[in-house]
Amino acid sequence: MKVVILHSEIGDCASVDEQDVLVQVDAVKGALLALGHEVQALPFCLDLVSMASRLRRASCDVVFNLVETCGGQGRLIHMAPALLDFLGIPYTGAGTEATFLSSNKLVAKRILRANRLRTPDWVDLAGGSVKGPFPAGSRFIVKSVWEHASVGLEEGSVVSPRNREELRGEIRGRLDALGGSAYAERYVDGREFNLSVLAGRRGPEVLPPAEIEFVGYGDGRLRIVGYRAKWDEKAYEYHHTPRRFDFGPGDRELLRSLERTALRCWDLFGLRGYARVDYRVGRDGTPWILEINSNPCLSPDSGFTAAAERAGLRYGDVIGRIIGDAPGEG
Fold first, then answer.
1. Counting runs of H as helices and runs of E as strands, what totals does the chain give?
2. What is the mean pLDDT of the chain?
3. Among 116, 127, 232, 242, which has the highest number of CB atoms less than 10 A from its own CB?
4. Which strand (E) or helix (H) includes residue 186?
5. What pLDDT digit, counting tens, does each position of 212-228 carry?
């Protein structure tokens, strides 16, 4: 089978998180070649006429979609599947609608809330879900609406505003660093979990749950999986936020609950191929859905790959299952 790996176009000044897509391209290409496929990598650009022509000339059977940004913007991530839909080319991962709905975090939160799935309250420049005044000591974390990979997210992103207007001022002041669109979400002090989901012959399979540990953080440091924790190899946070897969009997019911809601998210958003749902669990044991990632990182050292390995799957098995779940394949 002839496969095109479609990926974000990476410029000379690309950040380390953007450059990671090239690591994914190499890894996926190696796995596809080992599976016996003919493979070509193709960067995706904003010139859709040229892009359509290049894809037609490639004459592939399926596209392995690794596009995370378009023109350096996460808000345009859905342009790749939209163009592939227009061209009638099968592709891996979530479809256009699912990509848009899950990538816009505010839209995703409204869908979750409408379906009685817990997600932290929020405030945005147009309104939000928070009603009434803020209780004393309320904390919010200011996030990008569109950008993923913890772009612009650090311990300083957590603020304690006295009122709504003060919080909106915090949001406005951070727009440039957060891709031009931001919101503030109630900060949940507690544990952080990632639930990876992979397509299979019998439907989606939840891979072993992972918890991010905050080693040596103590009571004075906020537990945030920010940009430095993910991408800065020289940072304290990078070396003190390992993931773990071993849990005691006391976490059994919690993990079952997280697995059930991860599958509900898969169905609710119409996900396909692979996905990851991120949670915070409050100190009272209440789980809250933070984000739904319809195209989590597939680098060999990523959390998704680690969860798959924990389930006994080789990297090639994962890639084979993802491409097998593309429409018209499998």
1. 11, 14
2. 94
3. 232
4. strand 182-186
5. 999 999 877 888 888 88
